[in-house]
Amino acid sequence: MTGSENGSYYITTPIYYVNDKPHIGHAYTTLACDVLARFKRLDGYDVKFLTGTDEHGQKVETSAEKSGIDPQTFTDQVSQNFRDLTQACNFSNDDFIRTTEDRHKKACQNLWRVLEDKGFIYLGSYAGWYAVRDEAFYTETELTKNADGKRIAPTGAEVEWVEEPSYFFKLSAFEDKLLALYENDPSFVGPDSRRNEVISFVKGGLRDLSVSRTTFKWGVQVPGNNDHIMYVWLDALTNYLTAVGYPDESATEYQSFWPADLHMVGKDILRFHAVYWPAFLMAADLPLPKRIFAHGWWTNEGQKISKSIGNVIDPNALIEEYGLDQVRYFMMREVPFGKDGDYSKQAMISRMNGDLANDIGNLAQRVLSMVFKNCEGKIPEHGDFTDADRELLDSVAALHDKLRSDFDKQSFHRGLEAVWNVISAANKYVDEQAPWTLKKTDLARMGTVLYVLAETIRQIAILLQPVMPESMEKMLNQLSLPADTRTFVDLKTPLKSGVEIEKPQGVFPRYVEEEGA
Ligand code: ME8
């Protein structure tokens, strides 16, 4: 199989600022993309999954200065932490882009020239508020004052007054075009609640956007004017084009993957992706991405996550404590994707011990142990199926379409909930069919029941690979399912009777609190 019979699929994460260490929020966004990328590959798509780091701008320059090292050395170090995170979380990204790479500078400068040639960039001067933390401009009316009387942006970031010569992008020319885009293609921005926010923002009126800075140096130079560097968001957004070979629009990757199928972002940066980015692309006459989805934010035990409170969650620490696939499952299942959600130790343990150890872990362990002990370690033969057998087999067979439609809407929690409904049904079926009793009364029927269960486990394990790749690999190995028969096309090819299975071993251990912890 070539893996491309369903066409191509290009998915991107935001590129992360290198001013800080990676935290759970970064891991969350990239995980959601990883799950989709893996799902699409198994569903026969040729996938490009991109992540990387955003290395220019005032915020990064200041962080480098504070660390007492030059920005390039600083960005090399911090970017590596993000690359390490992709390893630690078993992310399957096909590329890792850094905005300090030459391929990217070339793409940015080219896009700038195109925008300028088409008359959408002009030189003026900017006087207004700027929040370095957000790398964003704000109008006076958007600001409030904090307890110290300092002006702050709606995000809570402090702002400073900036006055300097600046190039502007004619964003105001795109108000109607953007509104038409949201109207004509309701799936362009998700979830719907966020789409409405974007529409009201644009309806509120768009002012031309300052797209260059002169008061610091760490950025991509504006072509033809060395005094200016490009606004970090114009630079950063362009990464999605750089990675497919832009400005070479005849490049194979560009041809196969642009426009992107999905830009996944956190709710904090939706405006940049759903307003500025399509406007830049329309101005340059380039095709628009198909969808932008904004997920919510995590809190920690009910509290906003912040460095000053000191409650930042390190994904590596979570993985060490609970296990990688447990953390991956928790993040995708616990919170309706798109909504804000809370991390708590209790919720983590409850998913780990309930959904994983008790439900799927126990199902696989007891079924495979019975096959191993009572069927000479081989997948049993089956007789005619009863209504109860068919009901279980039909419910597992319906999951592929259900997951596909939920995952296409980024409703990971719903898809997983549906899988767990089938897992519960399978556990109930074990209790009702009681194969341990059949062992004494009707060996042939026992074989059929265990066959139905093993087949159910096979399909569930194939479908859950995108979320828990390592654990599902172990489960499928225990069924002795050949490694090249684990894609979604293979769902329809039932288990072969007579195949020897491995000695079953628990895949999902229970979390046991240490004494005195
Ligand atoms: O904004 N919960 O980079 P960034 C969930 N460089 N997700 C969170 C989170 C939380 N508490 N905190 C952060 C930038 N995130 C720009 C992007 S793209 C062209 C440029 C996630 O390092 C979320 O995805 O500030 C958010 O959008 C991203 O981290 C911001 O990362």
UniProtKB/TrEMBL annotation:
Database matches in InterPro entries: Anticodon_Met, Met-tRNA_synth, Met-tRNA_synth_2, Methionyl/Leucyl_tRNA_Synth, MetRS_core, Rossmann-like_a/b/a_fold, tRNAsynth_Ia_anticodon-bd
Domain (Methionyl/Leucyl tRNA synthetase) ranges: 9-368
Entry's Gene Ontology molecular function annotations: ATP binding; methionine-tRNA ligase activity
One Pfam assignment: Anticodon_3
EC numbers on record: 6.1.1.10
Primary role: Is required not only for elongation of protein synthesis but also for the initiation of all mRNA translation through initiator tRNA(fMet) aminoacylation.
Motif residue range(s): 'KMSKS' region: 304-308
Quaternary structure and interacting proteins, as annotated: Monomer.
A cellular-component GO term for this protein: cytoplasm
Keyword Repeat: no
Chain ranges of the Methionyl-tRNA synthetase anticodon-binding domain: 379-515
Main location: cytoplasm
PANTHER family with a match to the protein in the record: METHIONINE--TRNA LIGASE, MITOCHONDRIAL, METHIONYL-TRNA SYNTHETASE
Biological-process GO terms, alphabetical: methionyl-tRNA aminoacylation
Catalytic activity: tRNA(Met) + L-methionine + ATP = L-methionyl-tRNA(Met) + AMP + diphosphate
First-level EC class: ligase
Subcellular location: Cytoplasm
Keyword annotations of the record: Aminoacyl-tRNA synthetase, ATP-binding, Cytoplasm, Ligase, Nucleotide-binding, Protein biosynthesis
Coiled coil: none
Motif 'HIGH' region positions after renumbering to this chain: 16-26
Descriptive protein name: Methionine--tRNA ligase
Family under the similarity heading: Belongs to the class-I aminoacyl-tRNA synthetase family. MetG type 2B subfamily.
